[in-house]
Amino acid sequence: MKKFAARTARPIPVIILADTSGSMSVDGKIDAMNQALRDLIDTFSGESRLNAEIHLSVITFGGDGAKEHLPLTCAHTISGFSDLQAHGMTPMGGAFRIAKELIEDKEKIPSRAYRPVIVLVSDGYPNDDWEAAFSSLRGSERAQKATRMAMAIGSDADENMLKDFINDPETPVFRANGARDIIRFFRAVSMSVTSRSRSSAPNQPIQIEYEEIPDDELDLDF
């Protein structure tokens, strides 16, 4: 008797590169990012998986280095999320290296996956040996095909580097001046990814309309 394998939805990988340096502890920035990430997981986990399955990874950079805070995981199987802690310097280059290794890993991100989304969030300048890792990630064939977005938090962020990171002229670097803007940005990212997952053509990028997220819908829990 001929056996048939069950058809599984193709994954949409979403990789968040999150700044957890000490400056993120000021003005509620790390609290806002933690709330935004919890909201993001809640939204992704509730999405239908008939058409596409959203996978999420969170890579942090702060203190002594970068690490995979949340390995790439199907969103609906994430049972808990430990809050990010802000401390130390801004070793962003380590995050670029981890992101490149992840996006090029064909066991974790198979060729049948839809176009990945990479989101870089930072409030400062990288202070490790980051340039080569940044260039290597941007030059990666898979990273070039990914949708790359960025948010600059406050006036001390390296906006020139963030502008070089993004690859969609229709989606410029988002500038956040406070906690509400951080949450608004992640809401916009969530809307973009979930719109793709419901689309008949999930590889097509969805333009983010930041202005469509009104302030009065943002509930801050801190």
What is the total tally of β strands?
A: 6
Please give the CATH architecture. Answer: 3-Layer(aba) Sandwich
Shape: globular
Which range best describes the helical content: under 10%, 10-25%, 25-40%, 40-55%, 55-70% or over 70%?
25-40%
* Series of secondary-structure elements, N-terminal to C-terminal: EHEEHEHHEHEH
InterPro entries: VWF_A (IPR002035), vWFA_dom_sf (IPR036465)
Organism: Desulforapulum autotrophicum (strain ATCC 43914 / DSM 3382 / VKM B-1955 / HRM2) (Desulfobacterium autotrophicum)
Protein name: VWFA domain-containing protein
Index terms:
VWF_A, VWFA domain-containing protein, 222 residues, globular, vWFA_dom_sf, 32% helix, six-stranded mixed beta sheet, Rossmann fold, alpha/beta
Description:
- The protein is of the alpha/beta class and 222 residues long.
- The protein has a single domain (18-217), classed as 3-Layer(aba) Sandwich (Rossmann fold), CATH 3.40.50.
- The chain is 32% helix and 21% strand.
- The protein is built from 6 helices and 6 strands.
- The protein has a 6-stranded mixed β-sheet, sandwiched between helices.
- The longest helix is centred in the last third of the chain and has 20 residues, at 179-198.
- It starts with 9 loop residues before the first strand and ends in a 24-residue tail after the last helix.
- The model has no long low-confidence stretch (mean pLDDT 90).
